[in-house]
Amino acid sequence: MKKQLAIMIIVFSTIGAYAQHDHKAHAASSREKGTASFKDENLNTAYIHYLHLKDALVSSNAGEAKKAAGELQKSLASLSNGTKGAEEAEKISASSDIELQRASFSTLSNEMTTLVKASKLASGSLYIEYCPMANNNEGAFWLSNEKEIKNPYFGDMMLKCGSIKETLQ
Fold first, then answer.
1. Is the pTM of this model over 0.90?
2. Is residue 156 classed as helix, strand or coil in its secondary structure?
3. Is 13 exposed, middle or buried (0-12, 13-18, 19+ CB in 10 A)?
């Protein structure tokens, strides 16, 4: 009985800590890891959620992509120029189909690129990466905080397909 009670306390403590997730602390932690940071704190938060979404698509995890896109949608909605991106994030969060999520991610990435280029980096570097085979060989861009190519459009099937097209500093 004592063992079950102890397990329940640990579980509820973990759930409580997760529910009180601090986005600003997460953004600060990400900045320490070399992630690009922006002078606009709202854009910082959106960018962190965008990276979470990208990583979920790289791992072909539709459930995690759905969750990350929901958070990104909220973040983008708080930006005066984030409406189009918020709409695309909402499409991703409404779908459990990884291919549909990836199709919307292309448009979302274009919107995020516009937002980050219009803003000022406070620190770090940001990479605009490109896969020529995405979108039925029409090609697609995405943002990354690392030089290593990890393709969100194909995941493990073509993880290294792509190249860096631009570096923002």
1. no
2. helix
3. exposed
